[in-house]
Amino acid sequence: MNPEASPQAAFGARLRSSREARGWKQDDLADLVKYSGRHISAVETGRKPPTLRFSRGLDTVFGFTATSESFERAWGELRHGSLLEGFPEYLGQESRAAEIRLFDLGVIPGLLQTPEYATAMEEGNVKRGTLSPEQAAERVEALVERQAALVRRTPPMLIVVLDESCIRRLIGGREVMERQLAHLIEFAEQPNTVLQLAPYSMGERCPFSRQVNLLTMPDRSVMSYVESQTNGYLDRELTSVLPLVRAYHQLQAAALSQAESVAMIDEVRKGTP
């Protein structure tokens, strides 16, 4: 394996060198971390990506826990390397934000997804061959951790406007979607949340045609994060962020009220095909 070929190849090469430095065969290490020798071989040769559980097991065996040599840290870098550019940095800012404003279309945004809905989304990636089952499971786990990071003594104000397509698109089947829509209604009842729908009838009055995230930080500075199909971009420049903030206010003014939005979500929930 050429460790410079990819982050996954670098992980495998370092695993092999760490194992050989101790004079262990693959089966010896497998016994210690409770995996098969075949699994060790697959990770070392880059045929299988490491998982969080596997990486933590390696740290315990090698004595690398909470050190600069940690395999868990390498796994985190590997996982972030598969995310859109700018998103890992955005996550760090999101966990500190005083106010989070979201707009999405097509699918429920991650912060509002139930585990079942998120799992169904990732299973779609597995079926298309873009993720392994292990990677899909870790993405769901990471999403749960991301949601938990916002549960704190003074939680951020979370303001969300969803395009009507988010609640109309059936993800994961009837039961999964029913639970997801019920979760949205529960979300709207929280004291630190606002939930509105941008109905189809808004037409050209909807200022956004893609996902938009706006963060207001404790010092009142504002930054935006937008995504295309292949790239994500975190922007701190006021000259480009303020027009998005202004457009978001216009979006909220034209969207349904929270009461009207909840009523529509409940109607769709009860009539989910």
Structure characteristics:
alpha/beta; 434 Repressor (Amino-terminal Domain); Endonuclease, Chain A; 6-stranded mixed β-sheet; 12% strand
Task: Describe what this molecule looks like in 3D.
This protein is of the alpha/beta class and 273 residues long. It has 2 domains: 7-81, lambda repressor-like DNA-binding domains (434 Repressor (Amino-terminal Domain)); 87-111 and 150-270, 2-Layer Sandwich (Endonuclease, Chain A), CATH 3.30.870. Helices cover 51% and strands 12% of the residues. The chain has 12 helices and 6 strands. The protein has helices at 7-21, 26-33, 37-44, 52-62, 71-81, 87-94, 115-128, 133-148, 165-168, 174-188, 238-254, 258-270; strands at 99-104, 157-163, 193-198, 212-216, 222-227, 232-235. Strands 3-2-1-4-5-6 form a 6-stranded mixed β-sheet, with helices on both faces. The radius of gyration is 22 Å and the shape is elongated. The model has no long low-confidence stretch (mean pLDDT 89).
CATH class of the largest domain: Alpha Beta
Low-pLDDT runs of 5+ residues are none
What's the tally of helices? Answer: 12
As a whole number of angstroms, the C-alpha radius of gyration is: 22 Å
**CATH fold label of the largest domain:** Endonuclease, Chain A
Annotation, overall tally of beta strands: 6
Q: Bin the helical content.
A: 40-55%
**CATH architectural grouping of the largest domain:** 2-Layer Sandwich
SSE arrangement, N to C: HHHHHHEHHEHHEEEEHH
The biggest sheet, with number of strands, parallel, antiparallel or mixed sense and barrel status, is: 6 strands, mixed
Estimate the strand proportion: 5-15%
Instruction: Kindly report how far apart the N and C termini lie.
Output: 50 Å
Average per-residue pLDDT, rounded, comes to 89
CATH superfamily of the largest domain: Endonuclease Chain A
Q: Strands of the largest sheet, in order across it?
A: 3-2-1-4-5-6
Shape: elongated
